[in-house]
Amino acid sequence: METNQTSLNDLVSSSALSGMPGVFGHDPARMGTRLSESDLMFLYKAAHAGAAEVALGELAQSHATRPEVQQFAEQMVREHRKNNEALQRLARDKGVELELAPDTEDGQLLDRLRHLDAAEFDDEYLQHAGVYAHSVVERLFNQEASNGTDADLRRFAEQTLPVIRHHLDMAQQLTHPSA
Length: 179
Known about the structure:
- InterPro entries: DUF4142, Ferritin-like.
- Residues 38-174 form the DUF4142 domain.
- By secondary structure, this protein is mainly alpha-helical.
- Helices cover 69% and strands 4% of the residues.
- The protein contains six helices and two strands.
- It has helices at 8-11, 37-63, 67-93, 104-114, 118-147, 151-175, and strands at residues 23-26, 96-98.
- α2 runs antiparallel to α5.
């Protein structure tokens, strides 16, 4: 494969990102400035979280028993796909190739949810893919919006935060309908 991309080790001096699945490398010719390690970690984590939301939402569309959970899942798939596409374009503009796939932890969650009976699925999906995952992602995007060193990534995080917060609110309402 002919490419002018170098390994991520060449991008950052720290070994924290070396060999990290999900971020394949960067194209220095397209990168005006190098991204910080924290910005690269944001890209990596956001890509995996978004891919996990799509995969979990697709699973919920076929496994959820409550219509409102199926509708929530459909919305998660639609909106996270759109966000994933925007994130991937932004990363490419920065010379970073992303792998849009759930990470190991989310893959294990997918496997666990696949094997739940119908009575347990809705609550587990909402609690883990809805409330917990969106809480984690909200902190990730808030951190990038507040402290990111790349202006485009900061702006992306700022613009995406209201959607993430809305998803979290929806999941909380579905988890605790009387609250």
